[in-house]
Amino acid sequence: EVRRRSDTVVVLTINDVDRRSAGVVRMTPRAASGKPKFLDSGGSMVAKPKLKGIDGRAPPGVEPAA
User: Fold this and answer.
1) What is the rounded CA–CA span in Å between residue 14 and residue 39?
2) Using CA atoms, how far apart are residues 19 and 41, in angstroms rounded to an integer?
3) What is the dihedral of CA 19, 25, 30, 33, to 10 degrees?
4) pLDDT tens-digit profile of 37-64?
5) How far apart are CA 12 and CA 22, in angstroms?
6) Where are the strands (E) in 2-54, listed by range?
7) Does this model's pTM top 0.85?
8) What is the structure's pLDDT at 60?
9) How far is CA 32 from each of CA 24, 27, 41, 43, 47, rounded to the nearest angstrom?
């Protein structure tokens, strides 16, 4: 018997009461700058953490590779 990999995506739902305690973050439409903005479950703006060194730019004092 050959088993095939399931391509079904499982989506977990959380009711509104549990959403606030779970800290669910949802993404708003992109801003004019093209950067996504995030809202927490209460609707306030949450800063998106920027990971240093993986944004495609060389760190200060280092020349980019050719």
Assistant:
1) 17
2) 7
3) 140
4) 555 555 555 555 555 555 666 667 777 6
5) 13
6) 26-27, 38-39, 45-46
7) no
8) 72
9) 24, 15, 23, 19, 16
